[in-house]
Amino acid sequence: MGSLGFWRLAQADPGWVAAVDPDGTEHTAGGLLARANRLVHALRALGLRDGDGFCGLVPNGTEGLVLYLAALQAGWYYTPVNWHLTGPEIGYIVGDSEAKAFFVHERYAAEGARAAAALEPHRRFAFGDVEGFRPYGDLVDGHPDTPPGERTNGTTMHYTSGTTGRPKGVRRPLAGIDPDDAAEMLTFLPAMFGITPGEPAGGGYEAHLVTSPSYHTAVSLFGASALHMGHRLVYMDRWDAEGFLRLVQHHRISSTHLVPTHFKRLLGLPQDVRDRYDTSSLKWAIHAAAPCPVPIKQRMLDWWGDCVWEYYAATEGGGAIAGPADWRAHPGTVGKAWPVSELLVVDDDGEPVPAGTHGTIYMRMRGIAFEYKGDREKTEENRLPAKAGAGADAADGRFFTVGDMGYLTEDGFLFLSDRKADMIISGGVNIYPAEIENEITLHPKVADVAVFGVPDEEWGEQVKAVVEPSEDAEPGPALAAEILASLEGRLARMKWPRSIDFIATMPREPNGKLLKRKLRDPYWTGRAGAV
Q1: Among 374, 397, 417, which residue terminates a domain?
Q2: Owning domain of residue 503
Q3: Edge-to-edge order in the sheet of strand 446-456
Q4: AMP-binding enzyme C-terminal domain location, by residue (predicted)?
Q5: 22 vs 211, 281, 333, CA distance in Å?
Q6: This model's pTM is above 0.85
């Protein structure tokens, strides 16, 4: 293999500033490497062996990065935990993942302490002061910072949020290969977007801005692969539109990972604020997580130029990618299949549909398998049945779905319709909320919007919109009428919301994912279920 991968780069240039915490503290590659090595020795002394795992409830920054780097060179699974969860939810993940150690930052002391019972006291460690947890220093002090012996590759095991039931850990078999080679293999992801390596030892400076919580799969994966390519990681603590622009200018950020909600917030800044910051260093602004309205994407391309890339993917693996030129030629597409991935659109019987026909999207990564930890039934449930001679084992790389709907063009470009669970059936007609949301979100007085179906005695379902008004807008009937009037000539009236409610803050995860069930479920209380 070549010279990519954090450990190789750190040995070649230990003085390279590889990460910057949200408070501006800089960390050299050599310092991060020493901390990760020390942690490996400490956890092995605690009894961790190949194939074991541990959890981290930590904010964006180098504490979590060191946990990740330790796991990836010792053959362990690292599970970063969503810090918005409650104590019992966190405890479920710690227990279900069979964690052999649990790390909690004092910022999340309250809920972390509530989850403590999931693991024995001597396996709990705190960054700061957390009741029932030992100081992190008690674990690592006295252990050497020399490279550990018998190094073998580890990986992350993220838990999916899921639409029903408990979240599930997406677990992949470990290859048992050299961690340096495994790290270099990870760089295939940024390479698909044309991202080139930095060369710290030679003065080749690139920087990646982490804008969302690192417990999300895509955020951690893009950040980690950028680091393995020799890019400096710069962490944001929480999203702030002008703060983002300030960091881009100050650190000469070359790559970042965003979601359409971020675009909406950035475009909502006054023009004089946007003009105040130099964003010319951006070479790769990558976005995903939700469909992006065509006009908003076009405005970002007009502002930043052809550095805006899009992709569609899932924690489970596989996906599509759209470069700026592809998107300009096919506005609204999320791209064509990755080189190592395949896409398939099928009907309700699991049979492929013709190009241009809506159906359920399935995908797979060739030669790369996964399972939902401890749930073979769910693993099978989301896969297409194996064809004759294809094998039926969970590790055979069969096509799987996360429930999204869409269609493929003749030349292989994928367009999303919506989540199957979110589709509205009104009078027997399929209505896709994302299409309606894309139109409403363009209104200047709309900061955010969610569209879903609510009960209707005559039609089965009717279209409901919930709107988060912009700061200067007054919610009420007048604004609702203004929003509806703006849809004239742009959206068939059968798709117009029958009513619009207003909300102060839309329930979104920090990665941009809309928690639509929180909005929709109250309307279906007492019903057998949504149509």
Answers
A1: 417
A2: 423-524
A3: 446-456, 460-469, 499-502
A4: 435-513
A5: 10, 20, 34
A6: no
